[in-house]
Every structure is written in C-alpha cells, then in structure tokens.
Design a protein that fits this description.
6-stranded antiparallel sheet; 5-stranded parallel sheet; Rossmann fold; 12 helices; alpha+beta; about 425 residues; 4 domains; about 30% helix; Dna Ligase, domain 1; D-amino Acid Aminotransferase, Chain A, domain 1
C-alpha cells in the first residue's frame, strides 16, 4: 500500500513510525512532516490544511490510504474530500468532527445522551458570563467553544482569573472565531485520565489507557498547554473503570452521533476526570491525543494499519490489538516562552547520544533541518519517550535521555509520572 500521514507534530511522528514498520506499506508519505518524520517517511511540502493540495497529491501518487493526525484538517473536511475521490481515509467527517470543534455542541450532545459530565452554561455576552461566575464561585472552568490549539481552557482558582479568561475570549477575541462563545462549567475534583477508542460508526475498540500532564510547570502549576508529558498505562484505569467508560460514555456517544446524522469513524479520545462518583467526561477529541499517542504507539505490539483500515471500513469487530506489558513515559521538551510565544530557530544537539538505547524513541513535534543542524521550530519540540518494566524504570530511562540532549533554549517538566 501507499500511505499518507497528514500532520507535522509528535502525534504524527509516532503514527508514521508505527505505520512504517507495517509489512503492508510499500511507500509512506507525510505532509508536511518534520525533521524526525523525514527518517520514517517521505515528507511532502503540503500544509495539513491545504485540502485541495492534499487531494491532488493523493490522486497523482495513487495513495491507497490516508491517516489524518491533527484536528484542523478533519474539521475542514479533508476526509470528506478524499472519500469523494475514492481515496480511503482514517478520521471522522467534518460533520462528525464537531464533537471536538464545538464544545457547546458537544456538551449539549452529552446531556442528550445522558453521558456523565460537569454542569455547564453557554455564553456569548461577557457581562452575563461574569454575573454567572460571581454567583457560582470558584474554582470554575472556562472553555473557548472552538479549536484553540490546547490553549482555550482555563481552570480558574479565583474569580479574577475567571473574569480574565472571559475577557480573553469574548472581549479581546484572543481565540478569534473559536472564542465567539464560551462554555462555563463546574470544576470537577479527581484525577484526569485519557481514554482512546477506535470507532467504526457503530462498534468501538478500546486502546491502552494513558494519562497526560496539561499544566506547563512542575506540580501542575501555570497555564494549560497541549501536553507536557504522558505515560501509559494509567494505574487508575482499572478494567472495571474501563468497562464503565465504554458503557456510559463511549457507546452512548457513538449512538448519539449516529442519531444526529454525524456517524463517527476514527479515534474518539475522551478526556476523563475520575471522581469519587465515577468517571466523568470532560471533553471529546476527534483524533489521537498528543503526547498520549507517543506512549500508545511505543506500547503497541500489533501492526496499527489493519486496525485503522478496519475503523474506516466498519469492521472493527474483526480486530484485536496486543500491547507490550511494559510501561511507557514521554517527556515533552518545549521552547522557552511556550505556551505563549515560543523562542524558535535555536539549535538542538545531542540527540545521537540517545540513539543507542532501543527502549528510547525521540518523537519530533516541532523541528526542521538547516543543513545538518537540527532547529527548534515550534512550541512543543521533542517528545522523549521510553519503555520500562514499570513506570519508575520508564521514567528513569526517559529522563536519562532528556539529560543527554543539549538545548539551553528549551525546558521540560521534571515530574512527569512522579505522583
């Protein structure tokens, strides 16, 4: 098969790395890719949101199957455009991607499907939002309705922080069209977990559990990011809890989407809060989490490609996946300034020093090559991922690799997986 992976982040590097090992693949492309992905696939200079360009490339290169990594091209209808041309693609349609593209739509859907989630209100008027927050009190959560690259969620510990979050979206228009409406919801106490399931429109296949770290600083302080690290499995996700999540969250969502005329195929990523009352759904994403995808691909023993094809074809019942018993842990190295304005154009050295350990893989999230130099070109730049017989050993191995990388202009959390 000739396969195209769409995207340029750590998630796409992990997918390309796993798919490149498939005996089904004759030729693997990635658009646009990055410096690390170039070691696994042929990188093509077409942007992930250039729908017409991607379709044209697939026609010209006779691509058999497309794996869409990020949310933006899904929302823009890349899968729809490919399927119209007879090109098979993994990922939801534009209509089904609304489950991530609009938090307001998603929360309303959760209520209709009786999925356990936090109580919420929707607002377009900042004064009305602030009045509700004043009467409700803090802590409280404010979310931009649309896609905001992981930066549209504020967990406000006090009223002033909550008001500032309202103003950022509804007054300052910091998130452009994505922030024309906000969702204000109750703060849920507990432990967060990430739950992924492949979905074929009617059936679902749960993947291994994972847990990520959203806050920028050690001890879970500072603003939310797209993710500063992850590990798998999550000790909190017992088989009993997994069964509850499938029964009360995943399958009701699939049924509700089908009833809405938005049949969902792809990967459904549930952000969960494990509360004393049981698992509650924070939000759905319509694609793999990042950096959760990195630890999942490290632990996956099976060839992922047949499973992705089965999700697209509606035959997931015939698929089973095997996982390494080992734990995996990913430490994200980000450019100084992230999640604000990251410092770009700095050189990274020392990656070769980590290459001798087969249990370590460095996934590139924001890099490019300048002659022979590796250059940081994004906010989250590297995902240093390691396997170990348990979480402690995976963590030690990952941080040993991080410490060998020479990049003074980067930073990372020291406490991924520690708690």
């Amino acid at each position: 098969m000739r396969v195209l992976v769409v995207g340029s982040g750590g998630r796409e590097h992990a997918l390309a790395w796993a798919i490149s090992a498939s005996p089904l693949v004759d030729r693997l492309f990635c658009a646009p890719g990055n410096a690390g992905i170039a070691e696994e696939a042929e990188c093509i200079a077409i942007g992930a949101t250039d729908i017409k360009g991607l379709v044209r490339f697939c026609r010209g290169e006779r691509v058999d199957f497309v794996v869409v990594g990020p949310e933006a091209p899904l929302v823009l209808g890349l899968v729809d455009a490919l399927e119209v041309e007879g090109i098979a693609a993994f990922g939801p349609s534009a209509a089904a991607s609304a489950i991530e593209a609009s938090k307001a739509f998603a929360k309303d859907l959760f209520v209709r499907a009786q999925i356990p989630t936090a109580a919420y209100r929707r607002f377009r008027d900042p004064a009305a939002a602030k009045a509700f927050i004043a009467s409700h009190g803090a802590p409280i959560v404010i979310k931009a309705d649309g896609l905001a690259a992981g930066k549209g969620v504020v967990v406000a510990d006090d009223l002033d922080s909550a008001y500032q979050a309202v103003d950022a979206a509804l007054v300052e228009r910091r998130f452009s069209a994505a922030g024309l409406e906000i969702v204000v919801e109750d703060f849920l106490a507990g432990e967060e977990a990430s739950f992924h399931a492949l979905v074929d429109g009617k059936d679902a296949l749960p993947l291994a559990s994972a847990q990520d770290h959203k806050r920028v600083g050690d001890g879970d302080i500072g603003p939310n990011t797209g993710g500063m690290g992850a590990f798998s499995p999550s000790p909190l996700m017992t088989p009993a809890i997994e069964g509850i999540v499938m029964e009360r969250i995943i399958f009701p969502a699939i049924t509700a989407m089908r009833r809405e005329g938005r049949v969902f195929k792809g990967v459904l990523y549930a952000g969960l809060m494990l509360t004393e009352a049981g698992p509650m759904l924070l939000e759905f994403n319509a694609r793999f989490g990042d950096p959760e995808c990195q630890v999942l691909m490290m632990r996956l023993m099976s060839d992922p490609l047949p499973a992705l094809i089965a999700a697209r074809d509606g035959v997931l019942k015939s698929v089973d996946l095997r996982w390494h018993a080992e734990s995996a842990l990913c430490v994200v190295m980000a450019a100084n300034g992230y999640p604000g304005e990251p410092q770009s154009g700095t050189e990274i050295r020392g990656l070769d020093a980590t290459g001798s350990d087969p249990k370590v893989k460095i996934f590139h999230a924001g890099t490019r090559r300048d002659d022979r130099r590796l250059i940081a070109d994004g906010g989250r730049v590297l995902g240093v991922t390691a396997l170990g017989s348990d979480l402690h050993r995976a963590r030690d191995r990952a941080y040993a690799a991080v410490d060998r990388i020479q990049w003074p202009e980067g930073f990372f959390r020291r406490d991924i997986g520690r708690r």
